[in-house]
Amino acid sequence: MEEKRPFVDWETMNRFMIDAFTGYGVPEEDAAICADVLLESDRRGIESHGCNRFKPIYIDRIVKGTLLPVTEMEILKETPTTVVMDAHDGMGMVASYHMMKKLIEKAKAFGMAGGAIRNSTHYGIAGYWTGMAAKEGLIGVTGTNARPSIAPTFGVENMMGTNPLTFSLPTDEEFPFCLDCATSIVQRGRIEYYAREGRPTPAGTVISENGEAMTDSQAILKALVDGTAALAPLGGIGEELAGYKGYGYAAVVEILSAALSGGEFMKALSGVNAEGKPSMYHLGHFFFVVDPEAFMGLETFKKTAGEICRALRASKKAPGEDRIYTAGEKEYDAWLFRKDKGVPVGEGVQKDMIAVRDALGLDYHFPFEK
After folding, report:
1. Element (H, E) at 344
2. Helices 92-110 and 28-43, packing angle to 10 deg
3. Most-buried pick from 46, 83, 89, 92 (CB within 10 A)?
4. To 5 degrees, how large is the angle CA 239–CA 242–CA 247?
5. Alpha carbon distance 258, 183 (integer Å)
6. How do residues 31-80 score in pLDDT, each as one tens digit?
7. What is the distance of C-alpha 46 from the center of its chain?
8. Could you tell me the CA-to-CA distances from 154 to 130, 207, 216, 230, 240 in Å, in that order?
9. How far apart (Å, rounded) are the C-alpha atoms in residues 193 and 335?
10. pLDDT per residue as tens digits for the range 4-29
């Protein structure tokens, strides 16, 4: 589909977001990490977690006081192969970056390493952290809990977050195999898109408090806020399409994110206190890094992984389909398309950028401004 939105070049967008974060109290070195995580999402075409979120998810939360701009990381426990960290409600992206640097070093030394962070905040796309490992020829695994939105199978109450379970595996191709997806069928951002387009949400992806499937996108958004609807896990409502599998994976992520870090979970992550006022999120993340050299060697691993991916893409296609993808391939294609063009920004992002610039008095004139 032809891209009709205006582009902002990567360098300008990077400098602007760093200046914006520092303007709201984030140290410059940390701001650079945060900007790169968000732009990596846009580089991969994952716009739900890119520059369109830097204001509503990060800047606005700093202003509201539910996210601290300075990240005071505390190591609670450390062994040769493990780390447990408390992020003290600072920038989840900053804490995760320093965690992965430690784990990569440990995995190279001992073959495997694992870590967990508690009292954290939104850490951007999970694939950024596993991608750090893949760039070093290592296997990366991560997951994070989040504010409740998924109901358990046979339930109607939102109990767990969309809880991504993410893997990056090095291959002998130009990009790693990267599976980065939520354990719900649909996320709130997708429903917001359906509502803007006047489209219904697919049946079976959202359940009402009465146990019925909801499809009216506007009504769903209101019900999610009211707590009278919940997202269905991967597989959908009930057992017929194996929704219990998505429920189970979401629970695995919830348990590992909270139990390994000694952190909070489920309803405690709502971002609202007993008086109904905004509060800290206290999210938990977990990370594992594995060195293929400790098994049959990196080159063997990469060759086998690449052969599997190529065989899958070369397999028989369904009628009317001209291409089969493996995880990470579409994101690589998005980068090839965008690398010389920049970040496409819609009207909503444009307004956010102008609002932040004007609030901070930054000296920027964006390409989309006449």
Report:
1. strand 343-344
2. 80
3. 92
4. 90
5. 17
6. 999 999 999 999 999 988 899 889 999 999 999 999 999 999 999 999 99
7. 9
8. 33, 10, 21, 12, 11
9. 23
10. 899 999 999 999 999 999 999 999 99
For residue 339, pLDDT beyond 80 = yes
Confidence of residue 370 (pLDDT cuts 50, 70, 90): confident
Look over the chain and give the mean of its residue pLDDT values, rounded to a whole number.
Answer: 95
Do you know the residue count of the chain? 370
Residue whose entry in the numeric block shows the structure tokens 């508690």: 118
Residue 1 — very low, low, confident or very high, per pLDDT cuts 50/70/90?
Answer: low
CA gap 37, 54 in Å, rounded: 10
pLDDT of residue 198: 86
- With H, G, I as helix, E, B as strand and everything else as coil, classify residue 367: coil
- Residue with token string 């995760």: 96
Q: Which amino acid is at 87?
A: A
End-to-end CA distance of the chain: 26
Quote the CA–CA distance of 208 and 356 in Å, as a whole number: 37
Q: CB under 8 Å to 332, separation ≥6 — which residues?
A: 44, 174, 175
CA 2 – CA 300 distance, rounded (Å): 40
The model's pTM: 0.95
93 burial level (CB within 10 Å; 0-12, 13-18, 19+): buried
User: Which residue type occupies 192?
Assistant: E
Dihedral-angle region of residue 314 (phi above 0 means left; psi in -120 to 50 means alpha; beta otherwise): alpha
